[in-house]
Amino acid sequence: MTYRLIRRAVLGLGLAAALSAFTSFSPFALLAHARSTSTFDEVSETIANSISETFNEAVANHFPSRTGKPAQPAQPPDAKPLPSKPFADGSGYTLCFVPDGASCQALLINAIRSTRQRLLIQAYSFTSAPIAEAVAQAHRRGVDVRVILDKSQQSERYTSATFLKHAGVPVVIDNKPAIAHNKVMVFDDQAVFTGSFNFTKSAQERNAENGMLIRGDAAVVKAYTDNWHKRYRQSRAY
Bias category Pro residues: which stretches (predicted)? Predict the structure, then answer.
């Protein structure tokens, strides 16, 4: 059984049937499928990520299927407003580690809510309803928001891509690389968030992840912004 069939088992047959299907597939069959390609490492990573994210999100039923509406409230309990100009008060950085430290989701939502002019986003997997709603709210208050996503989000049932597009946010697909694995947000050309943290419920609640919000370092912000624009120019509209 290939990873695509596994996805169908989870998303199409329902959780009970999916669990039954998972007990019958052989991981060696998946690896044999990957070895038949010329990019074993890339396919293996894609399979693992696809199975993990799809199964976790299906269990949580966190995002409805392409309805254009998030299933969860926009603000998690640990999100607190930042000052009106959080990125203008000197340089520094804020770290987050889940599950052992500060919430990466709250750090991101606080930064998004405080953005006033421009928000640039790169994501491999983006299924978090609270983060997606915060991004949509930023767009509604006049922030120039643009999003680059990995091509896997074109078929991911729980992706926020459709929700953001329906909200009027420009979304493009970085489809040239095997995997567009960046997890980056640039806030008002003054701060950058990056790390291992995918913008998903699983990353916040199930995984061990890290992230860093870097403020006031012009060279770092410029490097990430320049790379964002390079990837944007090579992407296509969702």
Answer: 73-84
